[in-house]
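As promised in the previous annual report, we have extended the structural survey to additional targets. Below is the entry for Hemicentin.
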Amino acid sequence: MRIQNRTNLNEVFANEGETFKITCTVNTGIPAETLKWFSDQQMITVGGPTMLIYEFTPNKSNDGQNFTCLARNNITNTSLNQTISLRLYLKPKVYVKASPSTNVDEGKQLNLSCHYESNIAHDNVYWYKFLYKQINVSTNESFNLFISNSSKDDRGTYFCKVKNRVGIGVANITVTVNFRPTVIVHHKNYTTQLEKAMRILLKVESYPEPSASWVKSAGGKLGVWNLLKYENLQLLNTYDSTFYLESSIKPTNEKHFGLYMVAIRNDIGSIELPVQLHIEHILGYNVSVETGRTKCIASSSVNITCSSLNVDNNTVDVKWKHYFHDELVQTFQGKSTLDISHCDYRDEGDYVCEWMSNGTRLSARSSLVIIGPPVISQQTISIRDEFVCISVDFYCEGGAPEISWYINDVRLDFNSIDHRIAIKASNISVKVHRHTINITGFIATLVFNRNHIPNINKINCQVRKYSYSSEVVVSKEELLEAMYISIANRTDTNIYQNVANVTFSSKHVEKSRSTLYIFVPLTTVFLLILVFGVGYRMWRSNKGLEQVLQLMEMQNSGHVNIPVQMRELTIATEDHYDEISSEIGNTYNHAVEWHNTVTVIDSDD
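The corresponding structure token record, generated without further manual editing, is:
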């Protein structure tokens, strides 16, 4: 009996994945024999006489498997057998790993390592990447692909291909890169008419997805920012990170034409873009009549109708009064339907309509709620001793919002040894139609050591409620200006006191000579004092942050009544409410609930 290609160790060799034959031959007898192949005591084929071939395609699980050929003559009841072990040459089984992670921030290092399993050496290895198309990224046959400074161009699916004489093994890994927003399309200049909302459209690239906030306003009504994913079916959306950002501005007087700024940010960083609004002079324009509702999503439209069953409502001259937090802010004459377009926080409050009918004065009241972003009323920068205090006053409905502080686009922890963050309810002032109204709002405060100012390029405070956000930007120039003002306010007396504290008399000089003999022991004492002093200074700095916050709380505990500069008003996409539309300028229709519907007042009043 003979098995072809058997070695002295009773082994036969084959390549993984290739068709292979094991052949058993014998010198035939009389009568002819029957041949059988067995594997692990299971018969796999039968035939003969003289030769039996078993053909199959081995895989990795067949490596080391035993095969037995058996020849038997049924008349003489004699048999021959021989066993062989199958040894496979394995093609590479490849693995790819990423360090530190498959998700990396731009500017960071990324290392992709390729490993393979096989019992024979590889012939070559190379890398390629797929990002919309195949790109060869390495030809030096290295098992490591190192990216020292990751950018958005490094995202994609990477493949490591290893080849040996048996075959090819391939493994892949998908890498995502977090990068700050970049602008693809940005039109800086826009022209519109008074009382006409201007649509603002930006195209940006960002990963993760961005949010947008108005950070500077010339006073017009600002729309919410809607985020729309850009989708191109010809591209792999796994890698596509292009977005449209859409909002609007409605100027209601000529002072509202000017410079606006929008901040676009994600977890990695932010950019700030200018929007210049120019006036288009025309002879006249039309205002459309909208149907009404008692809730208005910021930048949408609403109207309120004052009606009576006893009169023709279309011909009635009505006097409207607008109350914001119980303070009268507007009075105007009009018809029974009041149109409010492109609403913002200044339109919130109670609306009272009054008209005369048969010598009787009638009135009705309805409340309008604006669903929109927090309102920034003012920001202040003050320096107290060695600490910088930045405070942001804001107002929003429905309780305290989420506050995020950023220094150089790095989000700050709530509290650390370097800074303190606080938020509390307080009386603030907001500007509504030429009126300064004192209401209950919030004050967010950041306190840090002024020694950090040289390393700060900007500070951002983001106030977020639901999916709306408002944002304040404090520039390095503003911090330096506040520090210069603080230095200029120091009095000459303080300077002279500091000089006096470091002046030595002649007696001190004589006394210092007598202490030279004990200089070495005093050096040890000095070092101990120095170590204690550093520890004390760190404790004092930490304590100082808390004391400054406490002092500010005491000063802000009373009523705030100061001139307000309406600087930054930020609006971001609202997806919390089911009814919101992805398009700007829609009209929303809801029923109006009137309270105290008809009130009869003596006509002599």
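Helices lie at 476-488, 492-501, 506-514, 519-556. The chain has four helices and 40 strands. These points will be discussed at the next consortium meeting with the crystallography subgroup.
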